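TA notes, week 10

Several of you asked for a full example with nothing omitted. So below is the full record: structure tokens for the whole chain, then the designed sequence directly under it. When grading your own attempts, check the secondary structure regions first.
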């Protein structure tokens, strides 16, 4: 899906494609390099957990998103009466791009929210199920449909309260503040970090007139009594944008997405082990996605996704609410290694 920004001229497109072919993009990156990722936790105090993620550091050339998670009491899915639920919604600020005004922004917001939900719930239907199976290398597999049970990235059973009656409903609301490409990928990182930042209150069922049918729930808002979500299984989405006949890039800028508008793109949700959890064809390019190119993009997504997931997980192990970048984590690791005395 096109995520906005001004169109480019044919000369600019040729310049961008030539740089991708030579593995030297406009901003100096290689084809498989990410921009600097800045993460800010706890940015929405009224939420259960939140995160702000920025791709890039140059003003007017960054993708800036916020995801807030709110834990509400809801009704568990019928297929899994002891499990919780998760829902995603995305709002695109018209300030970020004029293309986000009106129905264009609403339609893209729905597409982004559905893609996030598929990555979190393991839910694929119809053609998406077939594509996910093909990308994962499964032949002859049926489309998988999950109602937040097996295949979900979170252990949804930890969010159940009363069997068949109440559960925790996690609402993941994303806002796109600025857009310079790779919006879905940025939202994916922000969603994982917001879920990691979330604090789930302790809830107790209080017996009503019928002791066998508790009618009320008591919430303990003491932070010490809250629980955290295990997000180690939450995948990250890597979008491989085709640029030119046989090349693709990760973390594409807005100009690169426009340069690849006639080429296919593929968004793949990958966990830290490199396993494919969901796949979505996101390009507008005509002619479809041939098997050879799909395999090349899948290989890239698995490798880059596993590396990014490991970096994010390491960051979340030590991060507290506040601004830090993955570069900070790398710098600290290098300093620690340099300070270790050499082996005798």
């Amino acid at each position: 899906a096109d995520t906005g920004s001004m169109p480019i001229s044919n000369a600019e497109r040729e310049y961008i494609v030539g740089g991708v072919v030579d593995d030297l993009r406009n901003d100096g990156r290689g084809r498989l390099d990410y921009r600097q990722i800045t993460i800010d936790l706890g940015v929405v105090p009224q939420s259960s957990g939140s995160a702000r993620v920025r791709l890039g550091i140059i003003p007017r050339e960054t993708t800036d998103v916020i995801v807030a998670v709110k834990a509400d009491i809801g009704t568990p899915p019928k297929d899994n009466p002891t499990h919780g639920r998760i829902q995603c919604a995305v709002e695109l600020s018209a300030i970020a791009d004029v293309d986000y005004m009106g129905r264009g922004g609403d339609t893209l917001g729905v597409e982004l929210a559905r893609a996030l939900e598929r990555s979190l719930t393991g839910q694929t239907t119809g053609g998406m199920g077939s594509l996910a199976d093909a990308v994962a290398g499964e032949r002859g597999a049926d489309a998988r449909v999950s109602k937040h049970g097996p295949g979900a990235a979170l252990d949804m059973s930890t969010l159940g309260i009363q069997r068949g009656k109440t559960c925790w409903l996690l609402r993941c609301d994303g806002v796109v503040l600025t857009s310079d490409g790779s919006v879905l990928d940025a939202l994916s990182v922000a969603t994982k970090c917001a879920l990691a930042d979330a604090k789930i209150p302790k809830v107790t069922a209080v017996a009503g007139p019928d002791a066998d049918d508790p009618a009320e729930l008591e919430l303990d808002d003491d932070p010490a009594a809250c629980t955290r979500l295990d997000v180690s299984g939450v995948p990250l989405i890597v979008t491989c944008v085709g640029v030119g006949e046989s090349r693709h890039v990760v973390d594409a800028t807005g100009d690169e997405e426009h340069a690849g508008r006639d080429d296919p793109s593929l968004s793949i949700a990958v966990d830290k082990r490199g396993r494919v959890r969901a796949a979505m064809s996101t390009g507008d390019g005509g002619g479809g996605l041939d098997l050879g190119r799909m395999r090349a993009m899948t290989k890239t997504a698995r490798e880059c996704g596993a590396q990014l997931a490991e970096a994010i997980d390491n960051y979340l192990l030590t991060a507290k609410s506040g601004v830090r970048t993955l570069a900070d984590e790398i710098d600290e690791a290098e300093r620690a290694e340099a300070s270790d005395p050499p082996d005798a």
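The longest strand covers residues 166-178. Use that as a sanity check on your answer.
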